[in-house]
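Something for you to look into today, if you have time. Could you write out one complete protein record for me, on any chain you like? The space below this message is yours for that.
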Amino acid sequence: MFCLADRALAQDPVKVAPKNYRVAFKNDRVRLLDVRVKPGEKVPLHSHPDYLTYAITAAKAKFTMADGTSKEISVKAGECRWTKGQAHAVENTGKTDIHVLDIEFK
């Protein structure tokens, strides 16, 4: 229940970080976000429903969850990852720009 409350308090990433998140496509079933984050840049707390991420570039990032816990992730270009809906903040901890596509399922 607390997880749902955290997600309800977090905002849409497009509203929180419009320079990082751009809606590339949406319909009644999915929304495709084009995501770009520069090295050292931080994206504030926001939330996603269940989503699939496709990495255009290799990336390293730190995800900080709404409860304050964090985890480091790294992906290779062309890699896909499934993530259950969650609220998190993101920091690009790598030396290159992050460029991923997030496919959110409604």
